[in-house]
Design goal:
This protein has about 425 residues and is an alpha/beta fold. It folds into 2 domains: about 5-230 and about 410-420, 3-Layer(aba) Sandwich (Aldehyde Dehydrogenase, Chain A, domain 1); about 240-380, Aldehyde Dehydrogenase, Chain A, domain 2. Helix content is about 45%, strand content about 20%. It is built from 14 helices and 16 strands. The chain has helices at about 5-30, 35-50, 50-70, 75-80, 85-100, 135-150, 160-180, 195-200, 215-225, 250-260, 280-295, 300-305, 335-345, 360-370; strands at about 105-110, 115-125, 125-130, 150-155, 185-190, 210-215, 240-245, 270-275, 295-300, 310-315, 325-335, 350-355, 375, 395, 405, 415-420. The strands form 4 sheets. Strands 10-9-11-8-7-12-13 form a 7-stranded parallel sheet, sandwiched between helices. The protein has a 4-stranded parallel sheet with strand order 5-4-3-6, sandwiched between helices. A hairpin with a 7-residue loop joins strand 14 and strand 15 (about 405). Helix 3 packs antiparallel against helix 7. The relative contact order is 0.13.
Length: about 425
């Protein structure tokens, strides 16, 4: 046995204990009422508010260390908490509690000629492992969504947010205790050792049913490559806004500025602006001026650079880059077909928006693109479970199987068939 393998053994045994406890809690949650789950969530929200000072103090320590270690501006923004964000966290938990219970929904029912009655019902997935970076609010969102959908969860936050996430975690567990639910329904990996991630990806001895990564390309790529259990994730959020030739100028200006600059570090931030050649000067110029005035760097093709000299020349790599920063690539396109072709070539199937008053053009854009979210005359920053009325989300799914778009409580369920007979046997 190598030294590396020997070092993993005690950690592996420790984490497998967590997995077994989570599996036991998941079994118990299958019989928990909606009222009990909601009571736990409401108590957890109250505990977050009651422990706001502790959470903010822990976050201040995380921020200090993150700045000393040179964490980038986008990651610092994701890490930072204030009273408004803590209140939003508590409110988000309450909003999840207010959602309809996703468990036990009858999805379909039919009767066979032999009299068998067959029905399909939604059920919890089981034990979900969530690995995330920077954003401590994911601790509350993920735990609330998993509990509401009847799943046990094992959380592994980033080392940069360990104090903040730990303080939030303790408040959430108080909610479970208050509602007399199994406390192991919400667990957190008690170490920042990177080997813990590898052990989770192996499934902790078969106790984890699904892994959801929430973070940057490096984390998500590793999870997708190494996981031995199913993964629900998106690798990149290369989101596009297309200004069509029939776009309303004021809508275009407002939508593009918001889509890029409201928060540059989120996966729904626009990364590429496509401008129809027919409105390059009339619409493109004022939109680019707005972005520049807001402090956004513009990397553009030759045609845009000729019209807007303060833009920098874009490289081929810019069209496939998720900046997560105040940078946008801008390209001229010759109509709807060209815009769709560019998005299909360089996009990540996350979120795309068209700005136009032409209904036929909008409908073609919405149906021609194979992205998880497509929008008409709206900012890509609405690509968020809370904005969809889902209470909160764990992330955006861009895969083809199971869940696409915001992953909320319904997306954290699977289903089973219940078959009722009256003595039938198969000939």
């Amino acid at each position: 046995m190598s030294l590396h393998e020997a070092a993993r053994e005690p950690l592996s045994a420790q984490l497998c204990v967590l997995g077994v406890a989570a599996r036991s809690a998941a079994r118990a949650l299958r019989e928990v009422t909606a009222e009990a789950k909601n009571a736990a969530l409401m108590a957890a929200a109250a505990a977050i508010r009651a422990h706001s000072a502790n959470i903010l103090a822990a976050n201040a320590e995380d921020m200090t260390l993150a700045k000393m270690e040179g964490l980038g501006a986008a990651l610092l923004d994701r890490l930072a908490l204030d009273e408004t964000r803590v209140e939003a966290m508590a409110k988000g938990v309450e909003e999840v509690a207010a959602l309809p219970d996703p468990v036990g929904r009858e999805l379909a029912r039919w009767t066979r000629p032999n009299g068998l009655e067959i029905a399909r019902f939604s059920t919890p997935i089981g034990v979900i492992g969530i690995i995330y970076e920077s954003r401590p609010n994911v601790t509350a969102d993920a735990a609330a969504l998993c509990l509401k959908s009847g799943n046990a969860v094992i959380l592994r936050g980033g080392s940069e947010s360990t104090r903040s996430s730990g303080a939030i975690f303790e408040a959430l567990r108080q909610g479970l205790v208050a509602a007399n639910l199994p406390v192991d329904a919400i667990q957190m990996i008690p170490t920042t050792d990177r080997a813990a991630v590898g052990l989770m990806l192996e499934g902790l001895g078969g106790t984890i049913d699904l892994i959801i990564p929430r973070g940057g390309k490096g984390l998500v790529g590793r999870v997708q490559q190494e996981a031995r259990v199913p993964v629900l994730a998106h690798l990149e959020g290369i989101c596009h806004v297309y200004i069509h030739e029939a776009a309303d100028l004021e809508k275009a200006r407002a939508i593009v500025l918001n889509a890029k600059m409201r928060r540059t570090g989120i996966c729904g931030a626009a990364e590429t602006l496509l401008i129809d050649r027919a409105v390059l000067k009339s619409h493109g110029l004022p939109v680019l001026e707005d972005l520049r005035a807001a402090g956004c760097e513009i990397r553009a093709d030759q045609e845009v650079c000729a019209m807007f000299p303060s833009a920098n020349q874009a490289s081929e790599e810019d069209w496939r880059t998720e900046y997560l920063d105040a940078i946008i690539s801008a390209k001229t396109v010759s109509g709807l077909d060209d815009a769709i072709r560019h998005i299909e070539t360089f996009g990540s199937h996350h979120t795309e928006a068209i700005v136009t008053e032409d209904t036929a053009a909008a409908e073609r854009f919405l149906w021609a693109l194979d992205s998880a979210i497509v929008m008409w005359n709206a900012s890509t920053q609405f690509a968020d479970g809370g904005e969809f009325g889902m209470g909160a989300e764990i992330g955006i799914g861009t895969g083809k199987l199971h869940a696409r778009g915001p992953v909320g409580v319904e997306q954290l369920t699977t289903f089973k068939y219940i078959v009722c007979g009256n003595g039938q046997t198969r000939p």
